Amino acid sequence: MDNEEVKKAIELIEDRLDDNKEQTTLSEAEDTELVEFVQDIFVNRNKAILDKNLELIESLYDTNSKYGKWAYEYEERKVKYLNNWAEKQGVKFTEIIPKVIIRRSRGGNDRYSFNIMCNTEYKYIYENLPDIVNSSRIGTYHSLQLTKQEGEWVITKEWYTDPFADSLSLDNIKAESIKQHIISQETRDISDINERRKGAMQYADTYCGAASLPEYGFKYNKNYRDFNPEGGDCANFASQVLHEGGKFKKNSTWNYNKGSATGPWVNADKFTSYMIHSGRASVIAHGSYEKVYKASYKLLPGDFVAYEKKGDITHISVVSGVDSKGYTLVTCHNTDRNNVPWDLGWSDKKIKFWLVRVHY
Q1: What are phi and psi of 158, to 5 degrees?
Q2: Average pLDDT over the chain, rounded to whole?
Q3: Contact, 59 vs 135, CB < 8 A?
Q4: Tell me: the pLDDT tens digits for 134-173?
Q5: Can you give the pTM of this predicted structure?
Q6: Contact 307, 317 (CB under 8 A)
Q7: Is 318 helix (H, G, I), strand (E, B) or coil?
Q8: Is 88 exposed, middle or buried (0-12, 13-18, 19+ CB in 10 A)?
Q9: Where does the chain hold its CATH 3.90.1720 domain(s)?
Q10: Topology of domain 195-358, per CATH?
Q11: Parts of the chain belonging to CATH 3.10.450.50
């Protein structure tokens, strides 16, 4: 990543949606055609995933420019990854529905830049259980530049916080044997979990930011600092879920107070270590996806999954539900996810998983 990319990434993170920032959209004087084009970008990219047709999106990009080509090539890999993941899972995506909010725009004539939040709902069914539709949501923040070339708008630059950036390959996964195991499972009844676990589920659902249901306003809890500009907010959110929703008491080691947090509260690796070694949690399984995926069915709402890369735990997701085949769903910040299959975006052999039971 060069200096310009780093600068853009930092600007994008610092410009995240929160209650204290007023959203702005294009003025009436600006071109409605441009707004419609921005909306169509997201619709067509999702259609490319559903139809497995990259021709739908190639014309959206200036592939003759370095950044335009990079943006297209990334979307190309994402389309292939999502369809590979669906094959491994034994599912079919039936609808991918974006809600696009243009928060800011600037420019004029033949060039415009946009700051965008997109809440995308992914609906999927299992091949052998087609009558039940499952729903997951992912929230993304985009910095997008459009340029008019020969009378047509094209993407010349785009950066966004993407949930699939950590894993765009399933080449090393034994997809067929995994698929047969997944589709053979039955629905899991989690209605009898205790009230503290239910509280954790509700808190996660309410404050998962750009991935939340519209009625929750796509917000983080404003009583807590957003640590995304300082490396990530996933452990901070997991700590909130356990404290606010699950009623775990803070202490001198695991603590947040007036904008300051201890390492185990806000750092993914330290959070995992603290929870396990304090006795508040224990490990169900640890290892590659192929090693732990069968054990993942033991996870309950309020437990968590830690994601390890090169020996370091870099991300935390809180278990928030199960789908129609009992597959574990998670919710998190950075990138914002809401009831998303726990391995989506992470399932390759370079990543190890910690499946952790929290003791309520």
Answers
A1: -160, 130
A2: 89
A3: no
A4: 999 999 999 999 999 999 999 999 998 776 755 555 565 6
A5: 0.90
A6: yes
A7: strand
A8: buried
A9: 195-358
A10: endopeptidase fold (from Nostoc punctiforme) (3.90.1720)
A11: 3-181
Q: What does the alpha-carbon distance between residue 104 and residue 102 come to, in Å, rounded to a whole number?
A: 6
d(CA 239, CA 265): 6
CATH 3.40.50.300 fits 3-181, yes or no: no
- Tokens 């901070």: give the residue: 236
CA distance 204 to 281: 18
The answer to whether 178 and 293 have CB atoms below 8 angstroms apart is yes
Which amino acid is residue 134, in one-letter code?
N
The three-state secondary structure class of 113 is strand
pLDDT digit string (tens) for 21-63?
Answer: 444 445 544 568 888 999 999 999 999 999 999 888 999 999 9
The CA distances from residue 264 to 208, 237, 252, 253, 256, in Å, are 20, 12, 10, 7, 10
Place of tokens 């998962």: 208
